[in-house]
């Protein structure tokens, strides 16, 4: 049928021109061959599908272990509980007798508090607005806000109690799963990286940014477990929620970019390389 349609278009140029790419899956072959002006939106949508699919798939794949982890914690599955309790008791036994370590961990907890990361993203949003990078500003604000709200909702749903010790080194209010510090630090770091990566000069600077961001996220998560206010799975869940959320919002943002006629790009370039150039 496709061959016959192409032959008909060659024999009757007016018929081919009137079609105007009504079927995007044909990728306008007849019109390219005939030299007609084809609506490139069909081709753009076809290029966009793999990128959106990868973004959605990434979010879905991250959501699977997160869901399993939440269910196992909610049900009190012994293997997960044994690992959590073993790590918590081991770290507490080391840290509790070292006053300098407890003091250092508490300083880190304050420096990497969720509100510090939220405030940092707020400053980033204001800078983006001042540079008229409105789409990036909206994406950063929505992603950070969604992360905070999602973390709060999950805490209420799972309702996991925090670790308890005879001589606690620190205390924290609310439920334990997922770790709000781990979640907000990961979301904020990912937002910053995906916004500023295009403005960094060269591969070395981008790799260094990823390394520094990864260290911030890891130190924040380790600090919560070492202080005895979270289990390991609380921190892992926070990281997974952040990864799934950013993957999903970045995929949605890509549709926004394509509707505005922006060119396709690799995820490593950031969410919007064109607007990020205004940060230079």
Question: What does this molecule look like?
Answer:
The structure is a single chain. The model is unreliable at 1-52 (pLDDT under 50). Helices cover 73% and strands 0% of the residues. It has two domains: 2-34, no CATH class; 47-279, no CATH class. By secondary structure, it is an all-alpha fold. The protein is built from twelve helices and no strands.
Protein traits:
about 280 residues, mainly alpha, 12 helices, globular
In summary, what is this structure?
It contains twelve helices and no strands. By secondary structure, it is mainly alpha-helical.
Number of strands: 0
The average pLDDT is 76
Q: Which structural class do you get from the secondary structure elements?
A: mainly alpha
Euclidean distance between termini CA atoms: 53 Å
Strand content: under 5%
Order of helices and strands: HHHHHHHHHHHH
Q: What general outline do the C-alpha atoms trace?
A: globular
| Count of domain modules | 2
Helices, by number, come to: 12
Unreliably modeled segments: 1-52
Radius of gyration from CA coordinates: 25 Å
What oligomeric state do these chains adopt? single chain
Major beta-sheet overview: none
The residue fraction in helices comes out at: over 70%
């Amino acid at each position: 049928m496709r061959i016959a349609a192409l032959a008909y278009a060659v024999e009757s140029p007016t018929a081919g021109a009137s079609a105007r790419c009504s079927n995007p899956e044909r990728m306008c072959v007849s019109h390219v061959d005939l030299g007609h002006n084809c609506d490139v939106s069909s081709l753009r949508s076809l290029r966009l599908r793999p990128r959106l699919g990868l973004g959605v798939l990434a979010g879905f794949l991250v959501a699977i272990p997160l869901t399993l982890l939440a269910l196992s914690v909610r049900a009190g599955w012994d293997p997960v509980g044994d690992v959590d309790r073993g790590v918590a008791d081991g770290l507490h036994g080391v840290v509790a007798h070292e006053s300098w370590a407890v003091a250092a961990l508490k300083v880190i907890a304050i420096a990497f508090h969720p509100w510090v990361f939220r405030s940092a993203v707020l400053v980033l949003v204001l800078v983006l607005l001042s540079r008229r990078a409105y789409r990036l500003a909206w994406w950063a604000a929505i992603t950070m806000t969604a992360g905070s709200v999602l973390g709060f909702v999950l805490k209420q749903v799972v309702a996991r109690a925090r670790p308890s010790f005879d001589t606690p080194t620190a205390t924290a209010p609310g439920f334990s799963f997922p770790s709000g510090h781990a979640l907000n630090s990961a979301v904020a770091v990912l937002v910053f990286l995906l916004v500023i990566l295009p403005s960094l000069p060269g591969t070395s600077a981008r790799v260094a940014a990823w390394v520094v961001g990864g260290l911030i996220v890891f130190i924040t998560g380790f600090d919560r477990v070492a202080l005895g206010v979270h289990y390991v799975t609380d921190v892992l869940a926070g990281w997974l929620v952040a990864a799934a959320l950013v993957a999903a919002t970045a995929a949605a943002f890509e549709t926004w970019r394509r509707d505005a006629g922006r060119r396709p790009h690799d995820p490593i370039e950031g969410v919007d390389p064109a607007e990020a150039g205004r940060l230079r």
